[in-house]
Amino acid sequence: MKTAQRILITALDxxxxxxxxxxxxxxxxxxxxxxxxxxxxxxxxxxxxxxALFDLYQEQLRAILDAPxxxxxxxxxxxxxxxxxxxxxxxxxxxxxxxxxxxxLTDKYPSVAKGFIKLMAAQExxxxxxxxxxxxxxxxxxxxxxCNQMVEIIGxxxxxxxxxxxxxxNDINDDEYLYKSLSAILFALLPYINIEPGELHHLxxxxxxxxxxxxx
Length: 216
Prior knowledge:
Elements: H1 3-18, H2 25-32, H3 36-42, H4 46-66, H5 78-94, H6 97-100, H7 102-108, H8 110-136, H9 144-168, H10 174-189, H11 197-208
């Protein structure tokens, strides 16, 4: 693995554990057992590392967001929709330091702030379009205002669920966090979902039994 890749992987891990604001580029170099000069050769300071990690996050998340529009099959399945949400939550959690204190982060890094606004808008747009398709299929019965409220609730789970559990002092693992987040979204959408009882039960079982994990 190239040194630049090692720096990004290590920085991401430390930022996620301690918060970007509490970590210096020297500490990243020490964790890698390389000199600060070697790190500086690849990344001219922590700001460049943060920007590179955000670019990586943005690239990976956009690939997920773009996936539904590339499918030839226009019909939607509610369980597929929740798997799609799972992938977004999983990606956000992988880069969770970005959401740890987002206002401070975006104040410090203006380039990240601009990208964040566009990325959140893209997330909302994708979820809005998928919900609209469900309404057309009668899989969901809701007004436009109710759909907008669902989009906001899902967005809050995407961005703030991790902080909520951290503030509560809940010691939960990554997998538990992902499925607690999915459960919260299902609870919010449940009154509007119109599917067969067996299909709903299967979705609930998939969430309870963590059936969306990649190794399942």
